[in-house]
Task: inverse folding
């Protein structure tokens, strides 16, 4: 039995990827997982490596999509990014962005840069 809303996460991530590519970013990895956490999208914006959190929240309760990126979530993102970068010689400039959606509609995407 499918959970309510299942399938919306992957659809939101695919929409976010198209949005980023349309704005000149190059997708490096999708749903990168480690024991420390998961990064929804890793992309390059020129010479900068961008770790992207995709959040879909149809309701605005409790701060909506932006409010769902808690301090604990930011800590997991940072830890996962550190593990992704481990062992790389001279890691590139990095930043953490968020793609926020309240519907599966590219016109309603909010792109926040440097969330951490």
Result:
């Amino acid at each position: 039995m499918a959970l309510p809303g299942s399938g919306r996460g992957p659809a939101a991530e695919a929409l976010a990827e198209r949005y980023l590519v349309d704005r000149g970013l190059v997708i490096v990895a999708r749903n990168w997982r480690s024991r420390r956490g998961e990064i929804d999208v890793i992309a390059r914006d020129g010479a900068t490596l961008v770790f992207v959190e995709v959040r879909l929240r149809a309701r605005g309760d409790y701060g909506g999509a932006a409010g769902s990126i808690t301090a604990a979530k930011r800590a997991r993102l940072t830890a996962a990014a550190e593990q992704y970068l481990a062992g790389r010689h001279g890691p590139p400039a990095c930043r953490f962005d968020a793609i926020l959606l309240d519907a599966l509609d590219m016109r309603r995407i909010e792109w926040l840069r440097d969330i951490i």
In short: The beta strands are 26-34, 37-45, 48-56, 94-101, 110-112.
